[in-house]
Amino acid sequence: MALTIGTNRRRTRWTPLSPLRRLLAGAGIALLTACGTPLGPTVPVTPRAQAFLDTLSQRTFSFFWERTDPATGLTPDRWPTPSFSSIAAVGFALTAYPVGVERGYISRAAARDRVLTTLRFFWHAPQGAAASGMTGYNGFFYHFLNADGSRFQTVELSTVDTALLLAGALFCQQYFDGPDAGEAEVRALADSLYRRVDWQWASVRPPGIAMGWTPEQGFHGWDWKGYNEAMIVYVLAMGSPTHPVPPTAWNVWTADYKWGTFYGETHLGFAPLFGHQYSHVWLDLKGIQDGPMRSHGSDYFENSRRATISQRAYAIDNPAGWADYGRNIWGLTASDGPLDGTVTIDGRPRLFFTYSARGATFNDVRDDGTLAPTAAAGSIAFAPEIAIPAVVAMRERYGDDLFGQYGFLDAFNPTLKVSAPLHHGRIDPALGWFDTDYLGIDEGPIIAMLENYRTGLVWSRMRKSPYVIRGLRQAGFTGGWLAAAPATP
After folding, report:
1. Are residues 252 and 275 in the same domain?
2. Per-residue pLDDT, 42
3. Averaged over 201-213, what is the pLDDT?
4. 36 and 137 share a domain?
5. pLDDT at residue 19 above 70?
6. Which domain holds residue 232?
7. C-alpha span between 426 and 448 (Å, rounded)
8. CA 403 – CA 416 distance, rounded (Å)
């Protein structure tokens, strides 16, 4: 059942999942989880690659453990550039702490205490409609926070970033299941934070959920719809026992789905790979299906796998002729970039971007030669046979320019080797442009999805959450592990 990593050039043609394959996928999840073995396709990993994955996990964990403020639990958006805190990064930090326990990086008590600090801070932080001095409103939180936890400048109250924060809290609720008072408090605080969120208030155009709100201008004019990173918003909103949105909200979310074929892979489209990863960090979507996936004979796990494979095929083809793209150097997602402007390289004008949602799929290509290691590393659970060789190759080819104190720096661009007016990062004349920052929202999928691939830790615990179970069932998901899950009130 093993594949040889790094040698499989086959592009999978799209075929519906057979009933037998769906049955095996659903049964296999529970079996593999019980055995503590990888949940993705099994691939042989050399001792050298295994040692690197261990290092990658530990260094990435250290970003969250060492850079998060131990007095508040607030995690910086980026480091070492001074920055505000990102509530999504806090959600990833909460997810990383139990991984650290299971890997032996920290004690269970230390992780519990850090989680308690974080959840206590968010529970007691001021909530209100005032334009300043608040951390959130109606249970939601502002996208970015100052060091004291107050709103950063005039950023929006973010529904998706709140959902990512809550997902980390609900994972900790399931992980810290011991009888001592501290673990009981973790469970109670996570429950209280989740129950406080008024999803109905954010459903200003029912049954959709608005992207954000500000005290100055009210709700944004857009709801979350179509396929992107916000699937977990609707799952948590429909699973709420206090302020749920109705099941018809899922119809709003799926109404704008776009299907197509890109480099031989037919899948639901969203160009940056983070959209195929974020919700999957906490939601085990392998072998369960909603209406759209049933009608296409697929599931969201398979969809993310195909999106990953097609991006790698795009890099191999390399239609724009970017430097170093190939079978093991690939990965487009939202990330830092070198500059906003055009630089002439080898007689050819090249347009570059700073931070941008880079990606490539059948209806959208945004590519300036900037690659992000999190794109491949965050897909290890979906396609280990191509993602593991990619992260190993990046480490070996670019060395300490790309891999440092906290694992992979956010991004690099092998094409940009000439002097240019950089907005960020540095240029190595031999290897190209390299970021000098680590980003919390890109570090998070690396450690979480690597652990999901290895042991299924996050998925297995979240499959026990009554809120996740209820939300998925409200959305019409059936089959697989969900069929055996207990009924929820």
Report:
1. no
2. 62
3. 98
4. no
5. no
6. 68-256
7. 28
8. 18
